[in-house]
Amino acid sequence: MAYEGRSKSLNAQQSINLFPVLDTNEESKSVIAMFNTPGLGVFSEPATSAIVRGLHVMRDKLYAVVGATVYEVTEAGTATSLGTITTATGHVGMATNGTQTLICDGTTSGYIVSGGAMVVIADADFPAATDCIFFDGYFCVTVLNTGKMNISKLYDGNTWDALDFITAEASPDNLVGIGSTRQNIWLFGDHTTEIYYNSGNADFPFERVPGAIIDIGCESLTSLAEIEGVLYWLTDDLTVGKSEGYGFEVMSTIGINYQISTYSTTDDAVGYTYTLEGMVFYVIDFPSEDKTWVCNVKTGMWHEWSSVE
Questions:
Q1: What are residue 58's phi and psi, to 5 degrees?
Q2: Given a cut of 80, is residue 300 above it in pLDDT?
């Protein structure tokens, strides 16, 4: 399904709060139908009404950073404060190794949540981490205003060595964020992306895949999302891309690209994924523009969300 583009004479389609579903069954009365998008319900109400900056699940608990407060949320929605971090706004990175959840906020203060308690990482070698993942036994973090990725000790988010890092050097741009597929680490810069693998090297386990350099960067750290081993993000040329092997593929249509190009603010885009009845969706929200776009990644069809005021 296309979308309203630069010229309404060419394409004036819109799908607001309805998403198209294809039915390839030869006996179906229609090939395509429009379904209502799901709504929202209240699951948990933490004590603070600040902005939710990060959510991450470890085992049967949800950990939420709301403003400066970190909450542990049970399956019943009961939220318990575990303490506060140094910042109250901006992105937080969160990742888990199964027993520890790492939280980073762009400062040299990192936090580990484990056993229902949160502690500050005491190791002075913990860097000013802007984003994080867990991969092959290591917490991996991007370092503020550099091309560096640092790693923790194996299965230990409390221990770091300042010399345990690599630098994405194909281009001098700084790293924006980090993501992972099932086999690789993706380092997203302002204008380029590099892909790494676990080589098993005893000195440093991760090396760049030969030739795996993409001349596409990331416009917004918070647009990064992963599901079923595929990464999705807003590229630096304001298209929506997804990982494809050691390369990438543009998901957004000409109409969607035009819509995004008209926005004055794009670096605050927030992306996430969800599944519904076997369908997988990537959602990208532009809060400054009050616009939310959703793509069914299996069909490539887009629709728009709009709240009722």
A1: -130, 115
A2: yes
